[in-house]
Write a structure and sequence with these properties.
By secondary structure, this protein is mainly α. The protein has one domain. 79% of the residues lie in helices and 0% in strands. It contains 3 helices and no strands. It is rod-shaped.
Length: 122
């Protein structure tokens, strides 16, 4: 027994568009233009959800990269700070050591003094 098909007249913007929809529906194996249109709408809605999810993912990735850039910049600043602190401490220790060595050299004689004497500042 053959099923009776109810034909609905769908409104299309132009005859050319209707012909394109009919040919696409028949090429893809749909029984009617309406089934093709419903499937196309469902696909478009699903793809729209994917687009929104992709946009949210891109926003999260951009925020993560921004946070990483800030952390790298602060790490770079921290490295400069640690270097400056180490350098100043080293300079302090070396200047204190030079003064101590000069005092020892003056007390022990001219040979030690010639070895540790620093150029005079003007």
């Amino acid at each position: 027994m053959k099923k009776h098909r109810i034909e609905r007249n769908l409104l299309f913007p132009s005859r050319e568009f209707r012909d394109r929809v009919r040919s696409a529906a028949s090429e893809r194996g749909f029984r009617s233009e309406q089934a093709f249109i419903l499937t196309s709408c469902e696909h478009e809605l699903r793809q729209g959800d994917n687009t929104e999810a992709t946009a949210q993912l891109e926003a999260r990735i951009a925020a993560t990269l921004g946070n990483m850039a800030k952390e790298v910049q602060s790490l770079f600043t921290l490295t400069h700070t640690q270097f400056a602190l180490t350098n100043s401490l080293l300079q302090y220790v070396l200047s204190h050591l030079k003064r101590s060595c000069l005092r020892l050299a003056r007390g022990r004689g001219s040979d030690m003094q010639r070895f540790f004497v620093l150029p005079q500042r003007r």
